[in-house]
Every structure is written in C-alpha cells, then in structure tokens.
Amino acid sequence: MRQTPVLLKRVLKATLDADTFDIITGKVDEAELGYTCLHVLQNGSTDSPKENQLVSPAKARVVAVVERDANLEEAAKALVTARFSFDGRSPYAPDVVLVNEWVKKDFLNAAVQQSIRYLTEASGSENGHVLERRPARAKAEAVTSMLEQVKKDGGARIVTSGANGAVLDVDRRSSAFLGQKIDCPCLTVHAVSSMDDAIDLANGYVVWLAREGETCTLLTQHKEPVDS
Questions:
Q1: Hey, which of 9, 114, 116, 171 has its CA 20 to 30 A from 50?
Q2: DSSP letter (8 states) at residue 35
Q3: Facing residues of 206 across strands?
C-alpha cells in the first residue's frame, strides 16, 4: 500500500501521453482547470459529483479475498501490512479478509506471525519510518473499543491482540464486523466456501485478490452494494 503512489507515478508517466498527463506537487485551483479536465476525487466528496468529477467511494468497505491456492505467507504479509500501516486508518486497507475455508487456519497462523512486529512495537514505527497518525493512547483506545465490540458481538473471537492492534476471526455471518468500516489496526478474517461465495458476501468493492502464482493483486472489478 505504501509503495502504491510511487508505483503509480512511475507507471503512469511511462505509459500515458505527456501531452495529456502530468504530475504536480502543489494544490490545484479548480477555477483554473474548469471543465477541460476530469477530476478524480480519491477521498470522496460530500457534494453531488459534477459532470467532470469521478468520485472514489473512500467510505466503502474494502474486501480482500484469499483463494485456496494462494501463497498464504505472502498474502498475510501484504494484508497485515496494509491493515496495520498508517495507524490502521487508510481508507483502502482491507476491512475484512475473506479466506477459503480450507486454508483459513493456516492463513490465520501466517497473519499472527506477520502481526507480531506491529503488536510489539512501543513507538509504532518500522525501520525508522514513523507510522503513527494519532497519539499512541488514542490508538490503544480505538483497539480496546474494537475488542470490547468483539465480546458484545458474540460472532467473532480474538486470535491475537496488543495495544497496537489485533487479528480477529469472524465465524458468524450475522456479525456486525462483516459490514463495518474499520478505522484502527484490526485485521478481520472470515471463511468462505468459494470465490462465488466471497463475491456474494462482499456486497461491495473487492480490491485485493490472492491466488496461485500471485501475492496480492489489486482488482478493478466491483459490485454495487445490495440492500439486505
């Protein structure tokens, strides 16, 4: 996730026409652009989009799918990093990980191993790069609040936890965690029977896919939410 901006910058500049695409570092005055450019609002918008605006649903759930033949170690590493980095508040970190039921136990074991470096860090930093976006006390309170919800929910269990985050296993589909937007470093895992089952359950944007021959791939396909 942290490498995405750098990767996009390199790929887009290499593939798009320089006469139609450029990257700037300063803030753009919308009045200067007018209706000659398409505005992509990555952080969403509270207003109705204009004809020249493409609004990304930043508040929509982000779902990861781990297939039976996936490289579980690499998938766990990528998903734990995405969920625990940036204080667990990235809008595009996975809110729930749907794992094939045959490999859920092994994936949870791998996720626990990958989460140790985050759960045991007192300062919330990694390799000299500070990941904190809010005071440590506030993050700990957010994690504690999430764990209290687990106890009340009754449809999930705590696999491992610490002041810096937790890994949760949701075993009931009635659990509120499957439809919840997560804003703290808590990785939520749930078992599915197949890819079709995962897509039906996702009921929103599926942006990560782990399968044979790949680690974690971003998908562009999405499914419009359906009222239950």
A1: 9
A2: T
A3: 63
